[in-house]
Amino acid sequence: MDQDLKAVTVAIAAGVAVKDRVAGDEVDGEVVVVSRLMFRYLDLTIHMSRQAMHDLVSALNDKQQSIIITANIDVHSTHVDFSQYGRRILYTPNAGGPSIISEALSAEIMDRILGIRRLFTECEVKYNKAKPNAMTDYACHLSMKGGGGLGVSVTRAMVHHGRLTSKAARRLVTKKAKGILKSTDAVLNCSFQRQVLHIWVPNGTDSAIVRRACSKLSSTLKSNTIFFITTVNMSNVFSA
């Protein structure tokens, strides 16, 4: 294979034009061909493996399947051109908390990858008050066939001092996975039967730590949750 990356335009489930990059990665002295997708925009680029995108679409159609997906978000400047869905989260009052940028960017990435046709903000999602619950950050209906409704819980795997540890990652994903089960059981006005746990991380090392933590969850805690771990170079996502 030529040393240069080979790029061809492809179409995926959401109908977005992306670039398919085929590269040779060396593992234990052997070249392993890895096919990657790029969702290119003026403000950011979303990098995913072709296999990850395939697995994500398959999981959306198989309502019982839990899966762990990773991606890398390269923001080209301090300004993101938010769509109507990202802006709704940014400018609509929520239940409180400092992570509004991470939630808005989550909705933006979901829209650009899969296409959103309707979004419920955190305070628009209603719950059965008789049941103990944790709140979902937003819910959405996807444009893609078979996508249906999703609840999305957003969190940030970060530490203010030192490095993220495996213990801290396990504690975070366990807490969030339990909350997802509670909110899915208690929701009243949204039709989602499964959720995405969208986990933002600042670097690849932390992404690997979080991925291992998710993989070690019990099948009961995993349920049919889609774990979406995204590395991003936007510091505002991790601001307190």
Structural write-up:
By secondary structure, the protein is an alpha/beta fold. The chain has one domain. Helices cover 30% and strands 32% of the residues. It contains six helices and ten strands. The chain has a ten-stranded mixed sheet, sandwiched between helices. Helix 2 (84-91) packs antiparallel against helix 3 and helix 4 packs across helix 5 (204-215). The longest helix has 21 residues, at 166-186. It starts with 5 loop residues before the first strand and ends in an 8-residue tail after the last strand. 39% of the residues are buried.
Helix and strand arrangement:
Blueprint: E1 6-11, E2 17-27, E3 30-40, E4 44-49, H1 50-61, E5 67-75, H2 84-91, H3 100-114, E6 116-121, E7 138-142, E8 149-156, H4 166-186, E9 195-201, H5 204-215, H6 219-222, E10 226-232
Parallel strand pairs: 5-10, 8-9, 9-10
Antiparallel strand pairs: 1-2, 2-3, 3-4, 4-5, 6-7, 7-8
Helix pairs in contact: 2-3, 4-5
Number of strands: 10
SSE series: EEEEHEHHEEEHEHHE
Find the structural class using helix and strand composition: alpha/beta
Instruction: Figure out the total of helices.
Output: 6
Q: How many domains make up the coordinates?
A: 1
| Regions with little confidence, pLDDT below 50 for 5+ residues | 1-25
Name the features.
single chain, 240 residues, 6 helices, 10 strands, 32% strand, disordered N terminus
A few lines on this structure:
By secondary structure, the protein is α/β, with parallel strands linked by helices.
